[in-house]
Structure formats: structure tokens, C-alpha cells
Write a structure and sequence with these properties.
By secondary structure, the chain is mainly alpha-helical. The chain is built from 13 helices and no strands.
């Protein structure tokens, strides 16, 4: 009957982290409610704002992605209390970084577009879809940056601070995670400028003036793809900051080569009877945008797990 007691013991630990996950989600929701310019409940229920629902869904899903990744690698096994402290600290930091990433995405990825106006006033589903994809993409490399206990690997002897070793390791890991987050976010912003060089239509016009949902879905798929590929370096066995930084740069260059190839593959093979420019920019074909996004995300996931 030992296995029963072991099961109950693990179930108790699982319950602790389930409640912690609920608390992190609730805190993230309340902070988001406070930061938004309007009351979210009224916009969602009374105004039936689908664009806002898309944006919020990306944020909420991003929080869950963060928490699941962090709780699956809580640290170096210092016990339940140590794991709870580290998971709590990293999860709350992850929520903060996710909010920062949304601000950066609004400012740079949707450069020239007033995201708040498009979401709240125009209920622009195309922009809402991009916000959905961009936030989840950011959550991928934020989660990877906060994954594990890299602080103890970089500074195995600590920093000599007059605080608990658990808090010291958590602090070091948090600082390094912020650095990797900024590198990943910069990579995603650079990709956005690069993306607009080779797509056969003007992205800003499609998203803002035409509210082209097909273009929004295709772009969201590209953001998810770059997020997946940038995450590869952070999930490898950590050896040094320099090595991880170089691998991030190599993965970014690799993504710059692979994603356009997948884009043209989707256009020539999946939509062999037409072109992506015609289907997305002219016909605003929702299905074409979705198929392109699926191709980009699917093959990026294959690269992540297999290459």
C-alpha cells in the first residue's frame, strides 16, 4: 500500500501548485484589469468586443504557459517550501515580463498602428489576432528564460549576499532571465521588420485600414513560429551565458532563413491553385491565412523538437 501513500503525498503537492497557479492567474488578471483603459467586463459582455477577447485570451494563455513551464522545473530540489518560493517569484516575474512584452509589441510590432484604438474603438479582429499571437510568442521565450535554476549554474557559490540561499539563487536567476527575455523580445521585433520585407502586401494597411483577418492570422502564425524557434536555445542544457547568447543569435538567423521558406512552401504547395497575395490581400481569405499560420507553427514545432 506504499504506492497509495506516495500517490496521496504527490496529490497534496500537486494541490499546492494548483492553488498557486490559480493565485498567479488571478493576480495577473487583476493587474491587467487595472492597466487597461476601460472596464474589461463591460467591453466583453455589453460591447461583445471580440478583438479584446482575442488579446486577453493570448495574455491569459501566456500566463498559463509560463506557470506550467516554471512548475515543471521548479529548481534544484530544495524541498516543497523552496520550490513554492522559487515558482511563485518566477511566475510573478513572468507576469510582469508578459505585460512588458505586450507594451513592446504594441509599440514596435504594431508600429504605426494605435492598438488601443483598434481594439476598443474599431473592434479590429485582425489587430486582436496579432496581439494574441504576439503575446503567446513572447510567453514561450519568457517561460524558457525562467525555466530551471540557471542562477546556481552561473554563480554556484552565490554572490555573497546576506540573504537566504533560496532567495539569492532566485534573484540571480531572475536577473539572468530578464536579460534573456530582452534578447528574445529584440529578436522578435527585428523579425517583424524583416517579415514586412518579403510578404507580398503592406502589412500595416491590411491590419489597420482593411481590418484583414487573414493577414492578421498569417502574421500571428509567423510570430508564434519565431517565438518557438527562439525558445530552442533557452531549453538546451545551460553551460554559460556566452554559449546561450550565441545559440540565441544562431537560432534567430536560422529562423530568418526557415520562416520565409515555409511561407513560400505554404503558397506553392498548400495553395497551389492560387497565390498568398491574391488569397490574403485581395480576397481576404480567412482559410488561406489560417493554413499559412498552421504551416509556420507546425514546422517550427518540428524543428524545435527534432533538430
Amino acid at each position: 500500500m506504499d504506492f497509495v501513500w506516495k500517490y496521496l503525498s504527490l496529490l497534496g503537492k500537486d494541490l499546492v501548485f494548483f492553488l498557486l497557479g490559480f493565485l498567479v492567474f488571478y493576480i495577473g488578471k487583476k493587474v491587467k484589469d487595472w492597466l487597461e483603459p476601460r472596464k474589461l467586463d463591460e467591453e466583453l459582455v455589453r460591447s461583445d468586443n471580440g478583438a479584446l477577447a482575442l488579446s486577453l485570451s493570448g495574455y491569459y494563455l501566456g500566463i498559463i504557459i509560463l506557470f506550467i513551464t516554471i512548475v515543471s522545473h521548479p529548481g534544484d530540489g530544495t524541498g516543497l517550501i523552496g520550490d513554492v518560493i522559487q515558482v511563485s517569484a518566477y511566475s510573478l516575474l513572468g507576469v510582469v515580463l508578459l505585460l512588458v512584452s505586450q507594451w513592446l509589441n504594441d509599440a514596435f510590432i504594431l508600429r504605426g498602428i494605435d492598438a488601443q484604438e483598434e481594439v476598443y474603438e474599431n473592434k479590429n479582429l485582425a489587430v486582436g489576432t496579432v496581439l494574441f499571437g504576439g503575446t503567446i510568442a513572447s510567453s514561450f521565450f519568457i517561460a524558457a528564460a525562467l525555466n530551471g535554476d540557471i542562477g546556481s549554474k552561473v554563480f554556484p557559490g552565490g554572490l555573497g549576499l546576506s540573504i537566504s540561499p533560496i532567495w539569492e539563487r532566485t534573484l540571480i536567476g531572475a536577473i539572468l532571465s530578464v536579460v534573456f527575455f530582452l534578447i528574445g523580445q529584440l529578436g522578435m521585433i527585428l523579425f517583424t521588420f524583416y517579415y514586412q520585407l518579403w510578404i507580398p502586401y503592406k502589412l500595416k494597411d491590411e491590419l489597420e485600414s482593411k481590418q484583414n483577418l487573414a493577414a492578421g492570422i498569417a502574421f500571428a502564425g509567423a510570430l508564434l513560429a519565431i517565438g518557438i524557434l527562439l525558445t530552442r536555445a533557452l531549453f538546451r542544457e545551460f553551460d554559460s551565458i556566452m554559449q546561450t547568447g550565441i545559440l540565441l543569435l544562431l537560432d534567430l538567423c536560422f529562423a530568418f532563413l526557415v520562416i520565409p521558406v515555409l511561407h513560400f512552401f505554404a503558397g506553392r504547395v498548400i495553395l497551389s491553385g492560387s497565390t498568398l497575395k491574391h488569397e490574403i490581400a485581395e480576397d481576404q481569405n480567412f482559410g488561406a491565412g489560417l493554413l499559412e499560420a498552421v504551416v509556420l507553427v507546425s514546422f517550427s514545432a518540428i524543428i524545435f523538437f527534432a533538430v
